[in-house]
Amino acid sequence: MSETSFKQRVFSGIQPSGNLTLGNYLGAVKRFVEMQNSGIETIYCMVDLHAITVWQDPVALRNQTRELAAAYIACGLDPQKSILFNQSQVSAHAELGWLLSCVARLGWMNRMTQFKDKAGKNAEKMSLGLYAYPALMAADILAYQATHVPVGEDQKQHVELTRDIAAKFNHDFGVDLFPMPEPIIEGAATRVMSLRDGSKKMSKSDPSDKSRINMTDDADTIASKIRKAKTDPEPLPSELDGLQGRPEARNLVNIYAALSGVTPDAVLAEFGGQQFGTFKPALAELAVNHLAPISGEMARLMAQPDEIDRILGDGAMRADAIAAPVLAQVKEAIGMISSR
Ligand code: AQP
Q: What CA–CA distance (Å, rounded) separates 232 from 120?
């Protein structure tokens, strides 16, 4: 365990690998904003180096990165208060990623469930980068000596691996350079599920657009996706226990709770005994009211790509000023000569 007391600092990132989904928003970005507004130092990244672990069309990647920056800002991240930048502009990420991949053990990486989920039966055809992704994610966090990492439930294992890598580095080199970062997984929707299959998480890269709500979807599209969301024929229960074995119903209740800022119990107290024919339109209205101002603001920002690039450039310089000295200390600890 680290004995140094590290300054509280938040780091997290999202891949610009497609449209930001309601899952990314409720599981991650909403929390990013709360942490920013609590006064802690916050650093939020568009992790383009992670995005390319699967094929990205270069034109689309550029657009998706700007769109993600626009989404961050439209959701309430303030470039004055938070450092916002794209990962590839700060070379400490890639460099520290390599150094930490020499610390991480193959056995640890082999236990990562996200690789297994994403690779499926095609592991042999996946990029080496997809397999090594968690070591780069550890570098993202540790380059800033971040103490808190707001993420959705699916990223918990990667933050735990980051702690293992940090502890091994500190131990192997007899230093106290890295804190043990804490995953922050909070809220009613830490794992938003696909609208088509309650056993799969909602994901940007799901081939079916109907499986997710994109932050850029218009009101009609949101309403139609919620209306067509898979459910069961039973009415909603009045108690949480009644959602057992009903993953699709649970998912919609959790989404309603997270959007309206109440607990799932409170949602069931209001809608228990009612059919989805009543609940779905209420959820659609809530989602549209919540998301329409965000997508409107995103569209406004996307009309000014130069301003987005300026914000990202400023963020990259501020991020580099924190990460470069940490990287220098890491190299020093490893025994690398600083020759210039
Ligand atoms: N369904 C989800 N529910 C709650 N949180 C979620 N997150 C992702 N999906 C959900 C959280 O969003 C943050 C950013 O995730 P990411 O882009 O780094 O990668 P991911 O977890 O692999 O997300 P996607 O949407 O599934 O992307 P693709 O399809 O490109 O792999 C993380 O904090 C994550 O927990």
A: 28
